[in-house]
Amino acid sequence: MAQHNKLGQKGEDKAASYLLDKGYRLAARNFRYDHKEVDIIAWDKEELVVVEVRTRDSAYHEHPRNSLTPAKIKAIAYAAEAYILQNELDCNTRFDLVCWIPHKDDNRWEIEHIEDAFHPLP
Hints:
The chain is an alpha+beta fold. The chain has a single domain (3-62, 70-107), classed as Trna Endonuclease, Chain: A, domain 1. 30% of the residues lie in helices and 35% in strands. It has a 5-stranded mixed β-sheet with strand order 1-2-3-4-5, with helices on both faces. The protein is globular, with a radius of gyration of 14 Å. The N and C termini lie far apart (35 Å).
C-alpha cells in the first residue's frame, strides 16, 4: 500500500474513533457505489451524516479542508444518494468534513470537524 494510502487509512480510522467518542453511530465505512466512495456514514441522533475525511501530513502547504473539489463533492453526493436509496431511508442528511493533520515531531494529530461543511452540487 502506498504511503499516502496508509496515511489516509489511519486518518479514517482516527475519524471513526473520534465520531464514536462524540456519540455517533457508525452505519458504514468506505461505502462504494459505481466507483464513487463515501468514507464514513453515521448517525448523529436521527440525522444521517455523510463524512468525508481529509488527511494531510504536515509537509503539505494546503490545509486538508481546502482540498475538497467540486468534483469530489459531486462524487460523495452520488454515492450517498445510492446508500440512501439502497437502504430506503427517509431522513435529514448532513455532509460533514473531518480534517486530520499529524504532527511530525510526535504522535499528536490536529483535528478539525466541520459539521454541515458542504452541500451537494446540482
